[in-house]
Design a protein that fits this description.
Blueprint: H1 2-29, E1 30-34, E2 49-53, H2 55-59, E3 67-71, E4 77-84, E5 90-93, E6 96-99, E7 102-104, H3 110-115, E8 125-126, H4 127-131, E9 140-144, H5 154-157, E10 160-161, E11 165-174, E12 180-181
Antiparallel strand pairs: 1-2, 2-11, 3-4, 3-11, 4-9, 5-6, 5-8, 6-7, 9-10, 11-12
Amino acid sequence: MAKKKNELWEWIKALLIAVVLAAFIRYFLFAPIVVDGLSMMPTLHDQDRMIVNKFSYKIGKPERFDIIVFHAPEEKDYIKRVIGLPGDRIEYRNDTLYVNGEAYEEPYLDDFKNQVIDGPLTEPFTLEEVTGQEVVPEGHLFVMGDNRRYSKDSRHIGTIPMEKVLGNTSMIYWPLDDIRIVK
């Protein structure tokens, strides 16, 4: 009888440890997210499932063109691309991104730009025109979706405070035929 009781207690301990470990990993390190909508097309598709790396933003700083997940003002999580870092001046002219006056390539948009026949993919704007600020404020990010014509992003909701960022993401794990690392 004592042996069965001891074996049951060992199973309960193992299950409790597994549940606590899974909760720790999910809450502090990695979490799944489902892409909801078309704002990141063609890079990400509606209903792609991805892993959010929460740990990366606890120890490091975001980099330009990272794909991040953040809490949006509508109590929803958004997935967008980092375009502007704190202190940056952002401008779009002739479908080209300028950061602090320097033109930047956005190779992830090339295919989409070639498909657009009725004007630019990204309408011209300056950071000041869309946010009222000359530079991205300290502790904030300027983000945009890759589907520039149909993305609700920093042009509409303003800059994103760093404390609202959950983490970055770059791995699609579902659907199986679309498993890949995105850039």
